[in-house]
Design brief:
The chain has a seven-stranded mixed sheet with strand order 1-2-3-4-5-7-6, with helices on both faces. It has five helices and seven strands, in the order αβααβββαβαββ. It is α+β, with helices and mostly antiparallel strands. It has a domain at 2-115: Aminopeptidase.
Length: 164
């Protein structure tokens, strides 16, 4: 019992970050389902990853380990949007989501993207803090855009970050 608790605090390996590919789709679906109450399935991830407008990074448990987090973006230069960021429960609160966001923003800037948008549920304080610390700022709201796990409407906060 104590060993599991320690493993959650200190994973055995340093996470690695790499570009995602369509073979990662099932793993992304599992991580997404652990993070959102309305989960995307593997077929949806495979479709997104096959699109030429999609960029994605995955974090793995060590260089050859399983996927433990991801960030997915889609857009046409100079603008793109973050579609989703998710981290497996065991790996949360260790800076992994920030590493994924920073890594994606760096790659997008190198490819000529200048503006990144995203939407986040107003009640998702952790994600909002992540994005604010990464330089995003609120530019609008969409009332009732999301449904909470209880089925009640929740607003989406629209955020933007300029990369140049």
């Amino acid at each position: 019992m104590q060993m599991r608790w320690l493993q959650r605090l200190w994973p055995a390996r340093e996470p690695s970050i790499r570009a995602a590919n369509t073979a990662d789709a099932p793993a992304l679906a599992v991580v997404h389902a652990s993070s959102f109450h309305i989960a995307w399935d593997a077929a949806e991830f495979e479709r997104l990853l096959a699109e030429r407008l999609t960029r994605a990074l995955v974090a793995t448990d060590g260089p050859a380990g399983p996927v433990v987090g991801f960030i997915l973006t889609r857009g046409v230069a100079p603008e793109t949007e973050i579609l989703s960021v998710a981290v497996a429960p065991r790996w949360r609160r260790q800076g992994l989501a920030r590493r994924l966001v920073d890594g994606a923003l760096g790659r997008l800037a190198a490819e000529g993207y200048t503006t990144v948008f995203l939407e986040v549920e107003e009640g998702n304080g952790g994600a909002r803090r992540l994005y604010e610390r990464a330089g995003f700022h609120e530019i609008g709201r969409r009332a009732g855009y999301y449904r909470t796990a209880a089925g009640t409407p929740a607003s989406a906060i629209v955020m933007r970050r300029d990369l140049t």
